[in-house]
């Protein structure tokens, strides 16, 4: 078979490597518009902040490595500009030379990702120091600009995961930071009361947090921001972190079916409305595993899992992708916030009856030094006990509690059965009754 892949980072590179492991003979060609393949998107904020000192550490694989190790042809700086479905070929453009060519395919995999949303704000196009963060060139730009201009102040628009990570990063670099978030809370996947400790902590760490306000005008070539609250903000640089939108333009032009938020619609075999074309990663619509509605989950687990599964499907293995809980985690200075499943806001919006419990245990045995309070919220159906979701915020141990509950959800356990989980315990790590067990006791 002749397999062509669009996008060479999380989903694309994973699919390519797995395809080769399953079949030595197929021709595999991967096109990547950018200069780099297989880079660590998730590490970018930590490189800008200096926690990851070496830029090379972000580059996980090179085109030469893919060729030598896997026999995969990688064409970087090469954009796929059109799909000819009837003729089963893609049109590509080499971005440095402008040269165009056509490549035939038997099977096409799309993993084009999602791009940062750029809002329409008057004055934005005249602003000088405006940044978004998606890839290595974006990272280099931010890094170089800060080094050269030594700004005193940064404004971050958007209090989502990347915004919160960048607030910490920029504070690390010694900048004053103002975060402007349109909603009344940061970190939308959390419920408001769970976001509160994060907001308090960010303020404690010197982030000027403006909630419930948006930037309505940008003046002075980006140095002055006018907010909907009437507030006027002076800044040296502006980071837009208001979310991402699926890069589904190529699929749309090719007439492939799209779903929510313009994401590429796929079936359980990750096949688009054209059976020869598959799609994975941030660009696709997925099923919410908890309640079954269609949604997008632009996170790395899905891209990696789907990249592997799509290769299995293409090589004739029994494989299917059945949806996402949206399990996610973020470090906000010394706090960790983690979430799985749906939150209370979503349950209310959908009119789903639920029970919510909050517990505030210690991260490990209180008598052993270093125990920190943990806030854990569990949402479940009172009648059936089905777990809808959980959220955890604390300095320590939020990650494993959410991972355990996500695993319990995947295994179909009820809220009361969380009390039955036999979890590893010694005083430095937990309590004989782990916070997850306690949630189970409270729920039963
Ligand atoms: P990408 O990895 O974005 O790859 C898509 C590639 O396709 C791009 O390089 C693009 O240039 C290329 N492309 C698009 N169109 C074309 C075309 N027509 N021709 C050729 N090439 C094309 N997720 C987590 O779970 N945890 C985290 O902590 C986390 N942190 C993140 C931090 C940052 C700053 C960013 C930007 C993302 C983060 N993510 C995180 C999200 C995670 O990186 C994505 O979910 C994942 O990379 C998606 O994989 P993908 O293959 O769908 O898209």
From TrEMBL:
Assigned keywords, A-Z: FAD, Flavoprotein, Oxidoreductase, Redox-active center
UniProt keyword annotation of Flavoprotein present: yes
UniProt KW Transcription regulation keyword: no
Domain of life: Bacteria
GO MF annotation terms: oxidoreductase activity
Reported cofactor(s): FAD
Family of this protein: Belongs to the class-III pyridine nucleotide-disulfide oxidoreductase family.
Name this protein carries in UniProt: NADPH-dependent 2,4-dienoyl-CoA reductase, sulfur reductase
């Amino acid at each position: 078979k002749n397999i062509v892949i669009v996008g060479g980072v999380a989903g694309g590179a994973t699919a390519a490597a797995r395809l080769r492991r399953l079949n030595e003979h197929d021709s595999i060609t991967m096109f990547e518009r950018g200069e780099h393949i297989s880079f660590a998107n998730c590490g970018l904020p930590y490189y800008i902040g200096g926690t990851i000192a070496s830029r090379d550490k972000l580059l996980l694989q090179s085109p030469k490595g893919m060729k030598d190790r896997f026999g995969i042809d990688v064409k970087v700086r090469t954009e796929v500009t059109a799909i000819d479905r009837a003729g089963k070929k893609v049109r590509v453009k080499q971005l440095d030379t402008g040269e165009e060519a056509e490549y035939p395919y038997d099977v096409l995999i799309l993993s084009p990702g999602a791009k940062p949303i750029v809002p329409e704000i008057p004055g934005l196009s005249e602003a000088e120091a405006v940044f978004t963060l998606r890839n290595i060139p974006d990272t280099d730009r931010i890094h170089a600009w800060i080094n050269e201009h030594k700004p005193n102040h940064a404004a971050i628009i958007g209090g989502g995961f990347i915004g919160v990570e960048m607030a910490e990063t920029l504070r690390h670099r010694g900048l004053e930071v103002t975060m402007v978030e349109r909603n009344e809370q940061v970190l939308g996947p959390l419920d408001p009361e769970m976001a509160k400790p994060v907001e308090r902590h960010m303020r404690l760490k010197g982030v000027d947090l403006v909630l419930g306000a948006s930037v309505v005008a940008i003046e002075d070539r980006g140095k002055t921001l006018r907010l909907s609250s009437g507030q006027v903000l002076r800044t040296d640089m502006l980071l837009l972190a208001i979310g991402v939108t699926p890069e589904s333009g190529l699929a749309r032009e090719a007439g492939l079916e799209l779903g929510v938020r313009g994401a590429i619609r796929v079936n359980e075999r990750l096949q688009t409305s054209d059976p020869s074309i598959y799609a994975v990663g941030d660009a696709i619509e997925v099923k919410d595993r908890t309640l079954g509605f269609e949604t997008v989950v632009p996170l790395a687990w899905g891209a990696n899992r789907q990249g592997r599964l799509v290769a299995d499907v293409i090589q004739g293995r029994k494989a299917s992708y059945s949806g996402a809980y949206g399990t996610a985690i973020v470090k906000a200075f010394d706090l960790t916030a983690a979430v799985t499943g749906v939150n209370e806001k979503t349950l209310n919006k959908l009119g789903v009856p639920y029970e919510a419990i909050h517990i505030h245990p210690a991260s490990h045995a209180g008598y052993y030094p270093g125990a920190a309070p943990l806030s854990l919220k569990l949402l479940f159906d009172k009648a059936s006990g089905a777990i809808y979701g959980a959220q955890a915020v604390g300095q320590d141990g939020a990650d494993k509690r959410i991972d355990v509950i996500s695993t319990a959800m995947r295994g179909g356990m009820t809220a009361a059965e969380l009390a039955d989980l036999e979890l590893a315990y010694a005083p430095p790590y937990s309590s004989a009754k782990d916070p997850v067990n306690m949630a189970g006791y409270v729920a039963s």
